[in-house]
Amino acid sequence: MMGASCRVILAGESMLLLAGRALYWPAQQMLVVADIHFGKAVSFRALGVPVPRGTTTQNLQALDALLAQVACRQIVFLGDFLHARAAHAPATVAAMLAWRRRHPQLLLTLVRGNHDLHAGDPSSLLAVTLVDEPYRLGPFAFCHHPDTASEAYVFAGHVHPVYHLRSGHDGLRLPCFLQGPSRLILPAFGAFTGGYAVRPALDEAVYVVADGAIFPLP
Hints:
Elements: E1 5-10, E2 13-18, E3 22-25, E4 30-33, H1 40-46, H2 55-69, E5 74-77, H3 90-102, E6 107-111, H4 114-119, E7 128-131, E8 135-137, E9 140-142, E10 153-156, E11 161-167, E12 170-179, E13 183-185, E14 196-197, E15 205-210, E16 213-216
Parallel strand pairs: 4-5, 5-6, 6-7, 9-10, 10-13, 11-14
Antiparallel strand pairs: 1-2, 2-3, 3-4, 8-9, 11-12, 12-13, 12-15, 15-16
């Protein structure tokens, strides 16, 4: 069945996988987002690569769409919040600060990823709590890298998982959630992020996102 969300039980907790490429934990009113990569386009333009503008605005609008969909008091970012040092460009930071001023009540936590280590921490004016992986909360470990060792159930990003749907000679690469017995890998949230085609193991489930809907593969 296709819809805007899929309910799953993970480590005994009821969770929602959202078509907006995020995870929602209702009991904590928490959104979990992976690989937003603010400033990726401006980083490429700084290298002379002609890529589209407006990806920061797209990311912020996508966050606003999620906030309109669910009751949320906190967002956890699973790493790669900033793409590179060029993400500290004044226009990019100004857009992010304007968004933050519209949502002053939100608690924001960043689990540092590999790009964050190179890009540096986001502006202190964004009031983001910075932590390293694994960040433990309840029965879960919030991480960037899926292979982070933890006794808790792991939420992670980094891979930018996509699934290649084939029909005859046609094919589509669609963002997906990859759910296993000990971890859930989230799709990349950011615009202009690309993806890595995954091949699920027998004990893994794939939830594909397309056209504002999410559905499990049979």
